Amino acid sequence: VFPAGFLWGVGSSAYQTEGAWDKDGKGPSIWDAFTHRKGKVLGNDTGDSACDGYYRVKDDIQLLKELRVNHYLLSISWPRIMPTGIKAEQLNEKGIQFYNDTINSLLENNITPIVSLYHWDLPQVLQEKYGGWQNISMINYFNDYANLCFEKFGDRVKHWITFSNPWAVAENGYETGEHAPGLKLGGCGAYKAAHHIIKTHAKVWHSYNSTWRREQRGMVGISLTSGWGEPVDPHSQTDREAAERYIHFHLGWFANPIYRGDYPEVMKNYVGKKSAQQGLGTSRLPTFSVQEKSYIKGTSDFLGIGHFTTRYVLQKNFPFLQVSGYHTDRDLAELVDPNWPAPGPKWLYSVPWGFRRLLNFIKTQYGNPLIYVTENGVAEAVPCTELCDEGRILYLKGYINEILKALNDGVNVKAYTAWSLLDKFEWNKGFSEKFGLYHIDFQNKNKPRYPKASADYYKKIISANGFPNPREVENWHRKAMDSCSSTHQHLSADSLITHMEMVTEIVLPTVFTLCILICIVLLIFYLRNHT
């Protein structure tokens, strides 16, 4: 079992769940603009209504109570409380009230809010006017926004995350263009965005430290998502170096400046070398001044870690390219073991042992910081049979067990957050990937929530604070699988009712209208013949 006081929770983010994209004074975000362009998201799905979380706060808090979680990780939508992203221009009181009500409801139910200031939904105005994270002016605009949040919510929120998975913001937003704002800026875009994000994080931490900490007594951290890289041949020095390079380019890109004052040496060397080969006078990886290194180092009260999967890594030399980028800068290739379970999408293999290794790497590299696991979970690529998501049960059991082993290794892990509470909008994959402990029937206008087997199983882990004995844990598994069958019967009945309602609301009026039109035509025909 876990130590007394270990914290259990679930998470979600604003754009993925809230919906109400243009309601009550909210401004547009880059994800609103991105998803409204055809062909950017699988199935042309959007988060316009998502899970209708904006209107279902009380219902979703009831789900949190059912799970008996200690905490809920949520994000604030910057354009919901500051429509243009600029404090001096406009504040949206209805948006501020929404988050006040949400935070108060969580606390009334003894659930601790852990709040991320940024889960990818930059105000669209800042993207259009300034180029978003390519522009250094974002540092001050974001700091104004963060200070507004500290002012409005900091008396009750004691755990703040500045950025959730900034790697994806930089790499997918400004290099591959797979995510909003959808820019493909060659070899510099991702590095430049990340550079500004790191400086912004540090400024917000210092703002909290100097202005709010004494009075509010909270903590400010960052949430970094990283896979584990395992050398294909552990006896090969080049493979071992490639695997470590994989982690430094992923996790170390952000963690190293915060914990050690600068980018990883291997990153500086490789990007510098590739830049020189291109004939560039300076590296495509920006540099921090001596003052900036000192200012950034130590700016995290805890380290949030998101982790989903592992890759085998080997050395691979990319030939000289006129246009190099993040992926070719690393000189490595990623492989998977075909025998690894893949309960859902093909990028997400279940490899629990990689988590323990990643946590130990963090302990060794960064001085054993306080760690909150902020995202860990698996998706089904298709809706699971009868809500019986056995793959997720096995995933949770395996990964949570590896955290226990890491704790025994001396890693300073304080909290675990399952990702995620609900099936929701999954960025460029739309609604095709289901990460939720609770299924949502998106065909039903009311978007009802149904517990999957994993919700019941996770609830048992929380109540026992871990795994008391193998027989009992096996019993949890069996009971969870039994319960999902009965829940599925409710879902089937509700789906039938929804279908009947659609027939009533759409088909019957259509038939009625057709009957009237036919009668009119017949009447005209009759009158014409009569005359």
TrEMBL record:
A GO MF term: beta-glucosidase activity
Keyword list, A-Z: Glycosidase, Hydrolase, Membrane, Transmembrane, Transmembrane helix
Entry's transmembrane regions: 506-527
Catalytically driven reaction(s): beta-D-glucosyl-(1<->1)-N-octadecanoylsphing-4-enine + H2O = N-octadecanoylsphing-4-enine + D-glucose; a beta-D-xylosyl-(1<->1')-N-acylsphing-4-enine + cholesterol = cholesteryl 3-beta-D-xyloside + an N-acylsphing-4-enine; beta-D-galactosyl-(1<->1')-N-octadecanoylsphing-4-enine + H2O = N-octadecanoylsphing-4-enine + D-galactose; beta-D-galactosyl-(1<->1)-sphing-4-enine + H2O = sphing-4-enine + D-galactose
Entry EC no(s): 3.2.1.21, 3.2.1.45, 3.2.1.46
Active site: 375
Family matches, as Pfam families: Glyco_hydro_1
Keyword check for Cytoplasm: no
Record Gene3D superfamilies: Glycosidases
One GO-annotated biological process of the protein: carbohydrate catabolic process
Domain of life: Eukaryota
PANTHER family in alphabetical order: GLYCOSYL HYDROLASE, LACTASE-LIKE PROTEIN
Annotated family: Belongs to the glycosyl hydrolase 1 family. Klotho subfamily.
Protein name from the UniProt record: Cytosolic beta-glucosidase
Gene that this sequence comes from: Lctl
